[in-house]
Write a structure and sequence with these properties.
Blueprint (H helix, E strand, L loop, with lengths): L13 E9 L3 E3 L13 E8 L9 E11 L12 E7 L3 E3 L2 E10 L9 E11 L6 E9 L8 E6 L9 E12 L2 H4 L1 E8 L5 E8 L3 E12 L8 E4 L14 E5 L10 E11 L5 E11 L2 E7 L10 E9 L13 E4 L6 E6 L5 E9 L1
Parallel strand pairs: 1-3, 20-23
Antiparallel strand pairs: 2-8, 3-7, 4-8, 4-18, 5-7, 5-11, 6-7, 9-14, 9-21, 10-13, 11-14, 12-13, 12-17, 15-20, 16-19, 17-23, 18-19, 20-22, 22-23
Protein name: H-type lectin domain-containing protein
GO biological process, one term: cell adhesion
GO molecular function, one term: carbohydrate binding
């Protein structure tokens, strides 16, 4: 059996499974090993795409749903660094279907690196020939300086919707150096959407040295899709009452005639430094009328997320969540028109998530 680019015997500090698992669109590190006594370098497993789902090699766009990272971690050079990475191997044909490896890992690490306690990634799949929804993966090198206002322009023949386009960002990976001094902050948003492209804006704390976002473009008012937003600002008194990091999103009446699927991923956060980076989004109580969301710091008894907002794109079709390689341009299936964002930020704690929803 192919191990899909991984040597389970030689990667000390990683947990790599060689058994195949069904492709569900979600990979949790706790699925391959229990929470360790000391943070490690990550792990991976092989996902199987069923026979007959695709005629050609599929691709996918991914996002980070949650992470629990040790703030004292060192990189391979012994420097203070939280360099977290998500990765997919290129799908390989296997028994009429495809298999691929999904990885959550500490990048530029050594056996002395102890970064990851737990993490969860999610993904949306792509039909090789689909063009109605577009996605890009953008790596931003921001350097050891405040990166507010960093901008990336996307132009070219693949851009076709212009100002009539909804754009959503999923955080994929990032590196923070010396976060104890400046905290953990990263954010991204689209602006200047025109007939030829858009600007992808990135901001963050001075400790943010690089980050990668997956951008998803969906036509406005697309049949079978609904766009909206939600956040903790909707459920908290900003004058000092205790924040409630949960809320209920109600779909437009009659939007769905059956229970949709909802997938959530972080798009921004702003958390205090000098402590572990723990944050995640959860979705539950999903019905054809709405869903309940929670933003958590992933540690019982602590609730330090103060503000957050989110957008959600429910779609009318069943979302088949499958991933492949991450090319610069990733085309989503014509039927995967779903998503949701939420955000959290600042010294008191904030963040963002995007959630994709389909029926």
């Amino acid at each position: 059996m192919s191990t899909l680019g991984i040597n389970p015997q030689s990667d000390v500090g990683f947990t790599h499974l060689t058994d195949e698992h069904p492709d569900t669109g979600v990979f949790r590190l706790s699925d391959v090993r229990p929470r360790p006594g000391q943070a490690d370098r990550g792990g991976s497993c092989i996902m199987r795409i069923p026979k007959g789902r695709y005629e050609d090699v599929p691709s996918l766009v991914n996002g980070l749903q949650s992470c629990d990272l040790d703030h004292t971690s060192k990189d391979a050079n012994g420097n203070d660094s939280l360099w977290f990475d998500q990765w997919f191997s290129t799908p390989e044909a296997s028994d009429g279907g495809y298999t691929f490896r999904t990885v959550l890992r500490a990048w530029n690490s050594s056996q002395q690196t102890h970064l990851i306690n737990d993490a969860t990634m999610v993904w949306l799949e792509k039909k090789p020939t689909a063009t109605r929804c577009l996605s890009w993966e953008l790596l931003t090198e921001v350097g050891a300086c405040n990166c507010r206002g960093s901008r990336l322009a996307i132009y070219g023949p693949t851009w076709k919707y212009g100002a009539e386009t909804e754009l959503y960002a999923w955080l994929s990976d990032f590196e923070f150096t010396d976060p104890a001094r400046t905290g953990f902050a990263v954010n991204s948003w689209a602006s200047d959407i025109t007939a030829t492209g858009f600007l992808a804006n990135v901001s963050g704390s001075t400790s943010l040295t690089k980050c990668t976002y997956s951008w998803i473009a969906v036509p406005k008012n697309k049949k079978g899709a609904a766009c909206g937003s939600f956040g903790t600002a909707d459920v908290v008194d900003r004058k000092g009452l205790a924040p409630r990091n949960t809320g209920r999103v109600e779909f437009e009446k009659g939007k769905f005639n059956k229970k949709p699927t909802v997938i959530a991923a972080l798009s921004s956060f702003d958390l205090a430094g000098g402590r572990d980076l723990r944050i995640g989004v959860e979705v539950e109580d999903v019905s054809k009328t709405g869903f309940t969301w929670h933003l958590r710091e992933l540690r019982p008894g602590l609730s330090s997320v103060h503000d957050a907002d989110a957008r959600q794109i429910p779609g009318e079709t069943t979302l088949t969540m499958l991933c492949g390689a991450q090319p610069r341009l990733i085309l989503l299936s014509d039927t995967t028109d779903s998503g949701t964002i939420s955000s959290v930020a600042d010294q008191r704690m904030h963040g963002s998530t995007e959630v994709f929803t389909t029926a």
